[in-house]
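Researcher: Here's the sequence for the chain we discussed earlier.
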Amino acid sequence: MSQAQTLFGRFVGSFGAESLKKKSRRTMAAYDASLLWTVLILLALGLVMVYSASIATAEAGSFTGYHPWYFLVRHAIFTGIALMCAVVAFQLPMATWQKLAPILFLLCLLLLVLVLIPGLGKAVNGSRRWLPLYFTNVQPSELMKLAVVFYAASYAVRKAEFLPAHQPLSKTLLRGFLPLFTAVVLVGALLLLEPDFGALVVVVAIGFGVLFIGGLDGRIIVGLLGLLPFALGGILVAAPYRLERLATFLKPWEDPLGKGYQLTHSLMAFGRGEFFGVGLGDSVEKLLYLPEAHTDFLLAVIAEELGFVGVLVVIVLFMWLLFRAWMIGRQAARLQQPFSALTAHGIGLWFGVQTFINMGVNMGVLPTKGLTLPLLSFGGSDIVACCVAMAVLLRIDYENRRLLNGHNV
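Model: Thanks. This is the structure I predict for it:
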C-alpha cells in the first residue's frame, strides 16, 4: 500500500479513485462555480460594508484628506491587486506549489524577522506588525498563514512514513513531529514579539491540524492538548495585559467607558440591528464610537445595518466555503493527491479558525484577538493572502476534475 493510501485511507470510504473516474465519464465543469461565486459575493459585500463602516473615520482623519471614500478606494485597489494575484496563482500547478513551499516559508520567516527591526518595521497601537512600502504596508503575519499551509502540507507528505501510529512513538516524535514543531514554535515566538497573538493561534491550528490530518499519531495531539493550558498560562503571565483583556471580556460592562469600551459598543451594534437591521449606511456605532469598525469589528456594523439576517447570510457563505474546502480536499485524497488534499484542508482550517475567532470576538464570546474577517475586512496583505488561497483551492478542484475526466494536470 502506498504512503498516500496509508495517509488518506480514512477519507477514501468504500470506493477509490478508479471508481470515481468511472462515475465521471461525462464532461465536468472546469471549476467549482459555487465556490467562485461565494468568494466573489464575500468580496463584493466586503467592499460595500468597508465603505459604509469607514465613512466617519475617513471624514475625521487628516491622513485621509477628510475624503469619505478614502478607505473604499484603497480597499478596491487592494481587492483588484488580490484578484490579479489570484489569477496568477491559479495558473500554477500544485506540483509547483509543493516545490515552492519551503522557499515561501523561509521568505515569510525572513519578513517576520525584518518587521521586528527598529526602523524597518512600523508600529501601530503598540504592535510592530507592518513593513512600510511607498504606497502601502505589508503585514508578514498574513502571508505567513498561507506559507504555513503549503509548508505543513509539503512536510506531511515528505515525512509520511514517520507519522502513523504503528511507528515507534520515539521515532514519530523525533523524525515526524519535532521538525515541524520547531518551525511552528519559531514562527510563534516571532509573532509574540510583535505581538500578534491572534495570528499565532491561527498558525498553530494550521500547522498541527494539517499534520494530524496527514496521519500524525493521535497520542501526540492528545499530549499537545494536555500542555495547552500551561502554554496559555505562560503567555498570559508573560504579558499581563492579556490577562486584563481576558478579565474585561468576561465582565465588559463593569468598565464600559474604559477597558470594556470596544466590546460593549460591538454588543450594542448587535442589539440595535435586531432581525433586519437599521438599514445600510444607518449605523450609529460606526460614527467614531466603535473602534476598528472597518477592520476587526466589521461584523458588528453588518449586524447593526443588516441585522440577524445579514449576519446569517455571512455565516452561511463561510460555511459553504469551508464545506467545499473539505470536500475538495477529500476528493484529492481519493485521487491519491496527498499534497493537494492537505493544502485544501489547511486552507479550510485557516479560514474556519480565523472566521470563528473574529465572529466570536464581535459577539463577545471570545477575548479580543485583532483578527480580521477573511475576504470582508479592510486590509491589503490579508485580502491578497485570502484571494491567493481561494485561487489555490480552485486550482486543486480544477486538477481533481481533470483527473476524473482522464486528463493530465
